[in-house]
Every structure is written in C-alpha cells, then in structure tokens.
Please model this.
Amino acid sequence: MRRVDFLPWEYDADSAEGARQRERQRALEAEGATIGAGVFIAPNAAVYCDKLTVGDRTYVAALAYLTGELTFGADCSVNPFAVVRGEIQIGDGVRIGAHTSILGFNHRMSPDAPVFTQGVFSKGIVIGDDVWVGSNATILDGVRIGSHVVIAAGAVVTKDVADWAIVAGNPARQLRDRRDG
Model:
C-alpha cells in the first residue's frame, strides 16, 4: 500500500504518480467514464461502474468500492473503504468518510420467492453541494440530501434531509441547523 492511496489530497499530478494516474483514468475512460482535471482514483479502489462521471479535483481513496451509475461533482472525496453503489448523484464539495455506505438500490422482497432470486431496483440518491458524510454513516436508497448538510458518523439516513441540517442517529434525525452555530 502506498501513502497517496490513503491520503489522496497529497496527490501531485506533476509527479511520477501523475503518469500512473493518467493511465488509470484512460482505462476508465475507455470503459465510458468522464473524468475531470486533477482527479485521483487510487489504483486499488474497486471501480466497476455502468456510468461514471467524476468532477475536477475529486479523489477516490484506497479500497473504496464504486458500482452503478455515479456522478460526482467537483472537489469531492471518497475516503478509504467507503462504498458508493447504485444510482447516485453527488454535488460539489462533498466529503464521504471512511467506511461509509451510500446504497442507491434495494433488493426486492416478494414473499413468494427467495430474496436472492428477485433482483434489485433503484429510486436513486441525490446529495447536494457542501455535504459532509461522517465515517461509518449509511445512506439508503430513495433519499435526497440537501446542500450544506452534516451527517454525523454512524448515522443511518432513511429519509430526506433538508438544506443546512445536522443529522445523527439510527434512524437519523435532525439535531439542529448548521446556520444556528
């Protein structure tokens, strides 16, 4: 393991790592990804997307797991061991803590067949701009998170979150408004 894979904010596009990163990104672009300038995607991040758009200066750290149809805005971070799967749109300046799960799909659960045979469906997840998702948080399918939100570490988000809210708990509930200090 390399330091830059876990601390991607230390990435320097003009270093020897820059050439390796351009090669990694070309491979993803050959599969249909759109990748902005100054992006870092750790070589040991599992990126198996049907559709991937990554905005400028966004980074994906070591051992993150990305699948589905994902759109990241500019200046986002996906920290080590985070899982981002399904149909997900993420705005600008979003920080996703380590070990977080953002799951933009769900399993069907008809009682007449085993769950593993039924496939999945997606309502999708939308996350606004300037959002901090604390480590070990879980965001479930169908949720809309406003801009300027803080989701506390370990929170389980099952319902929409308004702009400027600080939420915590399982299930997550609003503690206060960020503008209230």
Summary: The helical segments are 3-6, 16-30. The chain has two helices and 19 strands. Residues 48 and 67 are 5 Å apart (CA to CA).
